[in-house]
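Module 6 notes. Inverse folding takes a fixed backbone as the condition and produces residue identities as the prediction. Think of it as a translation problem where the source language is geometry and the target language is the twenty amino acids. Below is one complete input and output pair. Work through it position by position during the lab.
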């Protein structure tokens, strides 16, 4: 992670639990992730400041000796209440080939849970990707990387036996019988009933969901 060309500090740790605390390197009002999905177990979580200044760039690299890496970015998502703090990721990442998913950790304190949205992308070993970022308003977010990903849609997995073997080995795949193909399925999406009525009000973000100003350039 670079800010104005300077690498920023982070703490990397393998995910082994359904809760991550602390979730950030500073001490924000909300500093815990809960309901971490099963497909993120064993991935590497990168803990950093809960808010990033503008001109921050994420650059993901997949080592050449690996076949594929799976990348995940998520952020607090209680629209429209949190829309001012999402770095415009809903538009930017989707346009850059990242797949959105409602299967994502939540931000939690002792009384409240805030929803989040996850974006997922795979890159081949020996390559890098720099997702588009507009971080003048990016607060309460997170990054996970799986360094031994599986491309469920690759030709070698397009039989029911091969696909199910990949699933048994921990790959986030599913055999789609209707089209006879192996596809990615991070988790079962939650279905919301359509019984009418007003949509519940969104939760306001924590009071420190603000984005720090980018440091000023030194005067010559």
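Target side of the pair, the amino acids:
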């Amino acid at each position: 992670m670079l800010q104005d060309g300077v690498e920023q500090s982070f703490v990397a740790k393998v995910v082994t639990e359904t809760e991550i605390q602390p979730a950030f390197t500073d001490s924000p009002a909300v500093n815990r992730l809960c309901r971490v999905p099963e497909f993120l177990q064993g991935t590497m979580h990168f803990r950093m400041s809960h808010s990033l200044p503008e001109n921050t760039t994420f650059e993901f690299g997949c080592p050449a000796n690996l076949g594929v890496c799976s990348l995940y970015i998520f952020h607090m998502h209680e629209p429209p209440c949190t829309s001012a703090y999402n770095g415009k990721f809903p538009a930017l990442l989707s346009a850059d080939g990242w797949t959105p998913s409602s299967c994502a950790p939540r931000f939690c304190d002792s009384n409240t849970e805030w929803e989040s949205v996850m974006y997922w992308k795979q890159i081949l070993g020996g390559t890098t990707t720099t997702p588009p970022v507009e971080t003048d308003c990016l607060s309460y977010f997170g990054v996970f990387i799986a360094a031994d990903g599986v491309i469920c849609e690759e030709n070698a997995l397009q039989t029911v036996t091969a696909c199910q073997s990949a699933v048994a080995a921990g790959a986030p795949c599913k055999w789609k019988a209707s089209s006879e193909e192996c596809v990615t399925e991070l988790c079962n999406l939650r279905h919301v009933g359509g019984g009418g009525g007003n949509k519940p009000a969104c939760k306001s973000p924590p009071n420190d969901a603000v984005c720090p100003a980018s440091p000023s350039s030194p005067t010559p």
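Reference fact for the lab report: Residues 58 and 131 are 6 Å apart (CA to CA).
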